[in-house]
Amino acid sequence: MKRLKKEFFYDEIRDGFYIPGLIKRAWGAQLIVLSEIDRICKKYDIAYFLYGGTLLGAVRDGQCIPWDDDLDICMLRDDFFKFAEVVKKELPEELTFNSLVNNQDSAELVAAVGTAIVEIRPEIREKYYEFLYPVSVDIFPLDDLAKDPEDEEYRKDVLRLLFVMLIFIEQKKKIQRSLKKK
Fold first, then answer.
1. Is the domain defined by 6-144 classed in CATH 1.25.40?
2. At what angle do helices 77-90 and 21-43 cross, to 10 degrees?
3. Backbone region of residue 133 per phi and psi (left: phi > 0; alpha: psi in -120 to 50; beta: other values)
4. Pairing of strands 136-142, 71-76
5. How far are the Cα atoms of 112, 124, 134, 166 from residue 96, in angstroms, in the given order?
6. Is the pTM of this model over 0.85?
7. What tens digit of pLDDT does each residue of 51-99 get?
8. What are the strands of the beta sheet with 49-50, ordered from one edge?
9. Cα–Cα distance measured from residue 135 to residue 4, given in angstroms and rounded to the nearest whole number
10. In the chain, what are the domain boundaries?
11. 76: which of 42, 135, 171, 173 is 20 to 30 A away, CA to CA?
């Protein structure tokens, strides 16, 4: 990855929103993490896509959204499992991969690659633009249609059930609110 110029890290006001240099250092560090993810994905022919605010900023502005402080990517589920298999052996020592796939005790619901600790070694500090706090890139696995029609029908049934449960919960809340008013 080409290094960002020092001017990138200056405080700025964009669209009326103040962006401190520290947030820009976080973005720079996250871009380094993303470059490691990209390297691994290219090596193993794993597709990934920008996601959420990261995608919106890239398409709309060609840069990070001023109020967004993280980077998000997504992968189809099969690619995500492939990534989870190879990522540990491919990451530089200062980065970790955290996911329910590799750590059932994880409290995090979103998979991420990032720095696990505050790193003080000069070469690591320099690599991550002197950003001394942990950073990560969130990875969202996406489910495509099941290859087996029966599996897809089952998934639809589960989603319908969840939807009905949500409606029931919302109706119960409305009833409780109306009873409180009386």
1. no
2. 100
3. beta
4. parallel
5. 8, 14, 11, 35
6. no
7. 999 999 999 989 999 888 899 999 999 999 999 999 999 999 999 998 8
8. 49-50, 71-76, 136-142, 111-115, 95-98
9. 17
10. 6-144, 145-182
11. 135
